[in-house]
Design goal:
CATH class of chain B: Alpha Beta
Largest sheet of chain B: 2 strands, antiparallel
Helix content of chain A: 25-40%
CATH architecture of the largest domain in chain A: 3-Layer(bba) Sandwich
CATH topology of the largest domain in chain A: FAD/NAD(P)-binding domain
Number of helices of chain B: 2
Shape of chain A: globular
Largest sheet of chain A: 8 strands, mixed
Strand content of chain B: 15-25%
Oligomer: heterodimer
Distance between the termini of chain A: 57 Å
Radius of gyration of chain A: 21 Å
Distance between the termini of chain B: 11 Å
CATH topology of chain B: Alpha-Beta Plaits
Largest interface: A-B, 30 and 21 residues
Helix content of chain B: under 10%
CATH superfamily of the largest domain in chain A: FAD/NAD(P)-binding domain
Radius of gyration of chain B: 14 Å
Shape of chain B: globular
Number of domains of chain B: 1
Number of strands of chain B: 6
Number of strands of chain A: 18
CATH class of the largest domain in chain A: Alpha Beta
Order of helices and strands of chain A: EHEEHEEEEHEEEEHEEEEHEEEHHHHH
Strand order of the largest sheet of chain B: 1-2
Order of helices and strands of chain B: EEHEEEEH
Chain lengths: ~400, ~120
């Protein structure tokens, strides 16, 4: 059994962990930063729809001619339950990533500033060790122990780091989206648009999506709240959806996974330990998007860790500034988005069909998400209390 | 396939680790004190969750849903600790591939062996 030491041990080599590694090294080049990834490859398997906003990603890595972009998106198309199509937001909407290239690109940057990245290596347990942590690990080099002055947990939906450290990362079932997705090729759609399809018979409590990877090829998936899923697993719902809407497509690969549409966990830090990304429930509860959020949290986590180590104070009291910074950056917004999600959940298909027809009365160039929301308000004044909390 | 599970009684406050042998074909149980177990018999769930590893994609969705944190991801696959599982069924429907189901609690099906042994 080998024993090694590092300053910052990062558990999980996804967007949160890799940005945390890069930022910690950049903040203090003297730090020994180790990233452990359980899967054999950084970026694979892909468990994601791969859609991101262009502005958000650009904060972290230059998207110009990047190989990790599958497709640039310039339109959003909503499908109401009855099939009414609503087009919005012509312009730079975002990208569909190729995450098998995106994460390696982030890893390369982290490596360039000095972080060590080890794949195929899992952390099997962490326990307190003096002011830091003792992690037992298992990988291609055999079993080992890492003594770390600090740990950043970026280990995703299934986070074990949080629970080992005594942080409550549990999720009520109503706030878990069960998702399934196929890569479907040979289908006909607008390759510059993302499609979001709502309806109780499509994906109750969630939505179905078509995210183009190229012309004629897309990630087609859906996420639903299982409590409303009539006991049918997400993959069965998706089979039904594909049979109905893309019967001629070829399914070349599938993935499944959970998206936590909750709000940030109450405590994201404890002594010498920070949680970030999905493991801390930092997903936008309205859209289910989490990649850019994870990177923003990773940046805060990496910098806070470097800062705390420099000050030789890694106590929970000091790390609390990470939690506070996250809450003012996005966490508080998520609390508001969560209330909107709860309010929208009360509406039935008829509401969305009506809304779609009303919104189509607004000229395309003036059709923004804000105006759509305003229309929804006029149709359903019961949304007003939610809106008041959102805008005030 | 035999696994040694370090579990604790999820339905009581004690955190004493109890080694349990659990196997898909042959389920048995060993522990230092069967009296302790009997004392809590009334609170043992009749059914517990089990993972079908052929269906499971190891996405980990079920793990944060489990109130007593009975589900762990191991190298060899996902695992529900039958000693910790309370049979609440919160993990069953959300599984995107239907890999989780309820089975009769192996702790009730098999009598406790008289001589405790630890299996690795």
């Amino acid at each position: 059994m080998t024993e090694e030491r590092c300053d910052v041990l990062i558990v999980g080599g996804g967007p949160a962990g890799l940005i945390a590694a890069r930022e910690a090294c950049a903040a203090d080049p003297g730090l020994d930063v180790l990233v452990l990834e359980r899967d054999r490859a950084i970026g694979a398997p892909v468990r994601c729809g791969e859609g991101v906003g262009s502005k958000g990603v650009g904060e972290f890595i230059d998207p110009t001619n990047a190989s990790w972009i599958s497709r640039k998106i310039t339109r959003v198309i909503f499908w109401a339950p009855d099939g009414t199509e609503v087009r919005v937001a012509e312009g730079d909407v975002g990208f569909i990533l190729d995450r098998t290239r995106f994460e390696p690109a982030l890893a390369t940057e982290a490596g360039r500033v000095g972080a060590e990245i080890r794949t195929g290596t899992e952390v099997t347990r962490i326990t307190r060790d003096g002011d830091g942590w003792r992690a037992t690990i298992r990988g291609p080099r055999g079993d080992g122990v890492v003594l770390a002055r600090m740990i950043i947990g970026a280990d995703g939906v299934e986070s074990m780091v949080g629970r080992w450290a005594g942080l409550d990362t549990r999720v009520p079932s109503r706030d878990m989206e069960s998702c399934a997705q196929y890569v479907v090729s040979g289908i006909d759609f607008d390759p510059d648009a993302i499609y979001l399809h709502f309806g109780d018979r499509i994906a109750p409590g969630g939505y179905a999506w078509v995210f183009p990877k190229g012309v004629g090829i897309a990630n087609v998936g859906l996420g639903l709240v299982a409590l409303k899923g009539q006991g049918r697993p997400a993959r069965d719902w998706l089979h039904g959806y594909l049979d109905n809407y893309f019967p001629t497509g070829t399914r070349t690969g599938y993935t499944v996974g959970g998206v936590i549409v909750h709000t940030t966990v109450k405590r994201t830090v404890t002594d010498a330990l920070i949680l970030c990304g999905d493991s801390a429930h930092m997903v936008n509860p309205l859209s289910g998007g989490g990649i850019v959020n994870a990177m923003k949290a990773g940046r805060l986590a990496g910098r806070t860790a470097a800062d705390a180590l420099r000050a030789r104070d890694t106590s929970a009291a000091r790390l609390q500034r990470y939690h506070d910074a996250w809450m003012s950056l996005l966490g508080d917004d998520h609390l508001r988005f969560y209330r909107i999600k709860e309010a929208l959940n009360k509406f039935d298909d008829g509401f969305y069909n009506d809304l779609a027809r009303t919104v189509n009365g607004i000229p395309l160039e003036r059709r923004t998400l804000g105006r759509i929301f305003a229309q929804a308000l006029m149709q359903h004044p019961s949304l007003l209390p939610v809106a008041a909390r959102y805008f005030v | 396939m035999a696994l040694c599970i370090e579990g604790n009684f999820g339905w009581e406050s004690s955190t004493k680790a109890i080694p349990v042998l659990y196997d898909e074909q042959d389920v048995g149980l060993t522990q230092p004190s069967s009296a302790c177990n009997l004392a809590h018999m009334s609170r043992i769930p009749l059914t517990v969750a089990v993972v079908d590893r052929q269906l499971c994609d190891e996405c980990g969705l079920c793990m944060p849903l489990c109130p007593p944190l009975a589900i762990e991801m191991r190298r060899e696959g996902l695992l529900v600790d039958p000693v910790v599982c309370t049979g609440c069924m919160k993990c069953i429907d959300p599984c995107p591939v239907g890999a989780l189901s309820m089975i009769a609690n192996p702790l009730l099906l098999h009598p406790l062996p008289s001589d405790p042994r630890l299996v690795a």
